[in-house]
Specification:
It is built from 15 helices and 14 strands. It has 539 residues and is α+β, with helices and mostly antiparallel strands. One of its GO terms (biological process) is actomyosin structure organization.
Amino acid sequence: LQRDAKGQYLFDLLCHHLNLLEKDYFGIRFVDPDKQRHWLEFTKSVVKQMRAQPPFTMCFRVKFYPTDPAALKEEITRYLVFLQIKRDLYHGRLLCKTSDAALLAAYILQAEIGDYDPGKHPEGYSSKFQFFPKHSEKLERKIAEIHKTELSGQTPATSELNFLRKAQTLETYGVDPHPCKDVSGNAAFLAFTPFGFVVLQGNKRVHFIKWNEVTKMKFEGKTFYLYVSQKEEKKIVLTYFAPTPEACKHLWKCGIENQAFYKLEKSSQVRTVSSSNLFFKGSRFRYSGRVAKEVMESSAKIKREPPEIHRAGLVPSRSCPSITHGPRLSSVPRTRRRAVHISIMEGLESLRDSAHSTPVRSASHGDAFAPHARGGRAESSERVAVIADEVYSPADSVLPTPVAEHSLELLLLARQLNGAPCSIEEEKESEAGTPTAAAEELGELRALCQGAGGLGGTQAEQVNKFVLSVLRLLLVTVGLLFVLLLLLIVLTESDLDTAFFRDIRQTPEFEQFHYQYFCPLRRWFACKIRSVVNLLIDT
């Protein structure tokens, strides 16, 4: 890449390589040296967004989950979304009950290995595959039973479509969790879905707020505020605390983008959003893409031969291995396995282990958007939606994954090229660390960018922000003084005889100021101006 290449150029290059037209649902994610995730901004230079030295490692991901993934126009798009949701299931982001988990895993099994064949699939064959962070024998038997008896004859495309239809009905569909704490100090996970704002605690969804009820989002430091306007003019403000200011800003930007994408009718309605107060500009951000309605209208106009999809012979992604290559969690030593379940963010516990849940509001996102969703189920505003049971309750694999050290990255890359599988914790600790050979697997994308990194520019950027804040404060102060001067001139020199001005002029304090200070000052200024004018005339 050239140093001034924009993010849009890199993204278009990748989508061309994938033969992908419905590209607005996807994005490029990277992790900075402080282990904070970011979405690559398409309107800015790629190199300037990086705080590390090249080569830069990035990941191709679904950024905006389709409201109805089964309604996507092209099979290639559905396949890429399928890979993303399969990855969400593997990392514990897509929480569901045992019955739903078994069906989803059976669909994956059917899509990747086809119909059950007694000669190829001996007893207990489903136990060799890793669909979730944790398995149980009962769940594995249920997966094999569904695969044998209910899915025979389904093609990979059909199985993937049925998988998407089922996943879309789950409460945590489209959840990209942000670890936070509530005002009581309890661990929680915030997420933005196609249907609204979600808060998860334990294995429950304690908040669901539709996009049309969200009136404003802002952040100050580590504090994130969500302003909600519900029926009967009821207004509430939800407050959460992120681990770092950078994490809070990332949460705010994700919220702004998701609300614009799913709520607005057209991209011309997008406005620049600021987290500012009167004196300081704060952060300003503007969503730069198309909105969901425009994307659907554009997809309907696609007319081309369906591109070929290469499902067979894919190199497995480290962060979401193919089920035929993924290692079982039981293959990892217990002492190392426990390290996987330690929260990356300080003070936050895993999603499953959080027992606190204070219901504020819970509502279903189903019927308005999802034709295949739960039909007539209505939730009380005081109920908590249970989204997973004790048998299947994934833990902290929903947490952000840190950047691997460079030496570990090269080691993992060498092992990958040599065909050696990585362990679970190595996969998790290097999600953004090592590229794979198959972009079609929705895995990692390595962009080898020529040019210097942005480490040196960070300090300069902070200094520039401080200088701009000081200048802005001075400008506001001068503006206020100018307004006061204009008001004083109006009071003393104008003939306006309104009641407000008359009352001020009749006060003893104003009369004393006018005759002892203002009139002499006015005569002094007039004398100086005449002297300057006469000097200019003489010259």
